[in-house]
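User: Structure please.
Assistant: Input sequence and predicted structure:
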Amino acid sequence: MLAKTESFSHEDYYNRTVKEMLPDEQPREKLLNYGAGSLSDAELLAILLRTGTKKMNVVETSRALLGHFGGLHQLVKRDWKELGVIPGIAKVKAITLEAAFELARRIQVAEMGEEIQITSPETASAFFGPKLRHLSHEVFYVAFLNNKKVMTGFHQISSGGTNATIVEPAEVLRQAVLHKATSIILVHNHPSGVCKASTADINLTKRIAESGKLLGIPVDDHIIIAGYEFVSLRTERLFN
């Protein structure tokens, strides 16, 4: 007589705990056996989150997180408070994720080395892109250069809404003088993803450049970061 078999529904399959998964399906075991590159975004997030909920295992929780925000590209833009909207993402887990995202951004910058010489728009974008491309609001930076075009520091001038931020040319030049800059580079982001200088961007750049001339601190460029793209106002010849 054949033994009675238990039914196993589609829902049961997805409600399994990680320990109930086959070894090759478990994120940590999969990483150990095949390397981190073999894991999906959800599986990598699952390792950071560690545990799921009573209704969803940690992998399903990670998938829900990615699905809610529209993928990894959008997820990394969120702070820990926003991440907490997903069931199972408590404060500690949300903070862990935000810290991991920030580390990833810093690693990109660290690859440039200790001394950053900015002689091209590409170099400026490589340094400031990781800081700005994922933000949902505009942020304006001024970078300070010495006579060898080595960046000696940078300062956040303002932080605003999704479409604009208030920048005072006097404050930009005040910071340049305080940091003994030989020249400066202006940088800000367009959260909209529109990689084009607005009339306001051009006029502001001209005002700062004119004031900089009076102080002997020229504006080398103004870089606008829009996602993974950028535009250089100097290259576009939008200011003298």
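Residues 115-232 form a domain with the Cytidine Deaminase; domain 2 fold (CATH 3.40.140.10).
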